UniProtKB/TrEMBL annotation:
UniProt-recorded Gene Ontology molecular function terms: ATP binding; glutamate-cysteine ligase activity
Catalytic reactions of this protein: L-cysteine + L-glutamate + ATP = gamma-L-glutamyl-L-cysteine + ADP + phosphate + H(+)
UniProt keyword annotations, A-Z: ATP-binding, Glutathione biosynthesis, Ligase, Nucleotide-binding
EC number of this enzyme: 6.3.2.2
Identification of the protein by name: Glutamate--cysteine ligase
Cellular component, GO annotation: glutamate-cysteine ligase complex
Length: 648
């Protein structure tokens, strides 16, 4: 989730003093990287996924599911192994925000082979890699504990949600939360994450305020308004919303991310832009977090919870008070959707006002960086650093990048454009960050392979998915809503073939049954961008749009790919296609159905300990392959066989 370094974090007062210093050197460091590496070429695609997990304990005697605060213990063992075995490790483990979370990645990136066929054959490795990862950690857990991919833990922040049991201490804790104790924050580095949370609170001048609309059921209180015996909470909690007050409610959620290494900086910029309109669509399809702090919400995705949970803007920046000591009005949280495209083609779709630091912008332009990229970086650099180490203050700007990374890695946006790290074999990369995590490896692999394959098609056929960035923002709002796959419609580009597309692109579109003329890029933006359902975007809309899955299937017929991988990829595409058309449920819809259908559910939006226990127990049996959940993955014999392989 961000930069981790050894040492002692400075207090907010000190960090603030160094804010300008960090930014200034961060910009110099970016200029140095750019100068050195702007012409770097990497021949082959490399990519890797990041899966975030929760360590869950099923307390069978009390029928409660809790979060086990064991990340530090597990990571200590994993780090020792990593030091001993180095790059022979099958998986790599990193801390996340919460003490019950770990993040696992493959030991080395996929696709690092030297020919195209080998790149595709890695699609058949990702699911096993994910399974190996989970089993590696589960071997270190007690019998009643499991490593689960849950985007949000339903009873996070309810009394007694963790083992060991912790009691929030609003008076004396760093976050001041009424619900989320400081001890549930990961503590590995000298309280790095706690400092992060504390400094966000100090910077904004009050606790974070998270309000998520409640799902209204027949017996839900009307209006739904809790009382907290706390002035700040009483002022902050909105009627008919679930109120939360700590970074942990957001950053304590899990997600599924994919990072791509592009062959050069231009390609990375194209991918960054082209994947941006896909963010809300893939978020809606992967929706998996309908419950927060023991209540069913009217949202299916974590996005706005995290966004609010790390929002460090002051009242001045928010526009609630006139600007006096702050420099800018800022329209979004540090965790939010991106504000500008950065490829040449993208420029004309940048239709929202970009807040950026003009001085840094000029400095970068003077140093030879083009205006689009300079604006992007100058936009990230309107933020203050929120944690800082004394030991790291003094940097060699030609060879180190910590100050740049400090600001970059605490801009948690839908996409991230990542320059190569200094002195490494890694190239220009792009990270795709909106997706929620699914229960099983089969599903997670399906989402990852879908998006990686889509990047291949975009680049090979030079497709164009760009729409005005304001419309992507509109889509982001829609995508989080309850049942957003079936109930909402999204702006999407219908004419995706460009004048630089090779003839195969048109042939590919034709082969899906959609006339290619209507898919040739139209310069009239209003006509090219239409409202479609997720189903239409993914599976096609008659004569108007070929659909992403049919396009990918068509692409697969044109490349060399071994039969086994081909078959696996088809199953993954089936999953995506069936989720999009509603034959299969999203994880969020399934969780809702489970909870509201539970015999003890009182139609009051409340998720009790018993309901939570039964839900998590069921999820655990799905993950272990003891049950195949037809509503989520279907019942093709192939899928069943794959899922059953998950058994230890
Ligand atoms: N857990 C965060 C999320 O759900 C992401 C943290 C990270 O950037 O790794 O989006
Ligand atoms: Mg992470």
């Amino acid at each position: 989730m961000g930069l981790l370094t050894q040492g002692k974090p400075l207090s907010w007062e000190e960090t603030k003093k160094y804010a300008e210093y960090v930014r200034k050197h961060g910009i110099l460091q970016f200029i140095a990287i750019y100068r050195k590496l702007k012409d770097r070429q990497d021949q082959y695609l490399r990519w890797g996924d990041e899966v975030e997990y929760m360590i869950v304990k099923l307390d069978h005697s009390n029928q409660k599911a809790k979060l086990a605060l064991k990340a530090e213990e597990i990571l200590k063992i994993m780090n020792e192994r990593e030091e001993r075995e180095g790059d022979k490790r099958a998986s790599l483990w990193r801390p996340e925000f919460a003490a019950y979370m770990v993040e696992g990645t493959p030991g080395s990136p996929f696709g690092a082979a030297n020919d195209h066929t080998a790149v595709l054959s890695h699609f058949n490795c990702v699911e096993d890699s994910m399974r190996t990862r989970r089993l590696e950690v589960e071997q270190l857990l007690a019998k009643d504990e499991s490593l689960l991919c849950l985007t949000s833990f339903p009873r996070l922040g309810c009394p007694d949600f963790s083992v060991p049991r912790l009691v929030p201490d609003p008076e004396n804790s760093g976050t001041g939360s009424l619900f989320f104790p400081d001890g549930a924050i990961f503590g590995g580095h000298p309280r790095f994450k706690l400092t992060l949370a504390q400094n966000i609170r100090k910077r904004r001048g009050r606790k974070v305020i998270i309000n998520i609309p409640i799902y209204r059921d027949v017996n839900t209180k009307d209006p739904f308004l809790e009382h907290f015996n706390d002035e700040e909470a009483e002022d902050s909690a909105r009627a008919d919303h679930i109120y939360m007050d700590a970074m942990g409610f957001g950053m304590g959620c899990c997600c599924l991310q994919v990072t791509f290494q592009a062959s050069n900086i231009q390609e990375a910029r194209i991918l960054y832009d082209q994947l941006t309109p896909l963010c809300p669509i893939l978020m809606a399809l992967s929706a998996a977090s309908p419950i927060h702090r023991g209540y069913i919400s009217d949202r299916d995705c974590r996005w706005s919870v995290i966004s609010q949970s790390v929002d460090d803007r002051t009242k001045e920046e928010l526009g609630e008070e006139p600007l006096k000591s702050c420099k800018y009005r800022i329209n979004k949280s540090r965790y939010d959707s991106i504000d500008s495209y950065i490829s040449e083609e993208g420029a004309k779709y940048n239709d929202i006002q970009l807040v950026y630091n003009e001085e840094y912008y000029k400095q970068m332009v003077d140093a030879g960086i083009d205006t689009l990229l300079a604006k992007h970086v100058a936009h990230l650099f309107i933020r203050d650093p929120i944690t800082l180490y004394r030991e790291k203050l003094d940097q060699d700007d030609e060879h180190e990048t910590d100050h740049f990374e400090n600001i970059q890695s605490t801009n948690w946006q839908t996409m991230r454009f990542k320059p190569p790290p200094p002195q490494s074999s890694i190239g220009w990369r792009v990270e795709f960050r909106p997706m929620e995590v699914q229960f099983t490896e089969f599903e997670n692999a399906a989402f990852v392979v879908f998006i990686v394959l889509l990047t291949r098609v975009i680049l090979t056929y030079r497709l164009n998915f760009l729409i005005p960035i304001s419309k992507v923002d509109e889509n982001m709002q829609e995508a989080q809503k309850r049942d957003a796959v079936s109930r909402c419609r999204y702006w999407f580009r219908k004419d995706i073939i460009t004048h630089t597309s090779p003839p195969e692109a048109a042939a590919c579109v034709e082969a899906t049954g959609c006339p290619s003329e209507s898919n040739i890029c139209n310069s009239n933006l209003d006509e090219s961008c239409i409202l479609m359902s997720v189903n239409e975007i993914i599976n096609g809309k008659g004569n108007h749009f070929p659909g992403l899955v049919p396009l990918l299937r068509q692409y697969l017929t044109s490349v060399e790919i071994d039969a086994a991988t081909h078959c696996t990829v088809q199953q993954y595409l089936n999953l995506i296609a069936n989720r999009a058309c509603g034959n299969l449920m999203t994880t969020a819809a399934w969780i809702r159905k489970y909870v509201t259908g539970h015999e003890q559910y009182k139609k009051d939006s409340k998720v009790t300990d018993k309901i939570n226990y039964d839900l998590i127990k069921t999820v655990n049996s799905i993950v272990k392959g003891e049950t195949v959940c037809k509503e989520l993955v279907g019942d093709s014999p192939f899928t069943k066989a794959r899922i059953l392989r998950q058994q230890k």
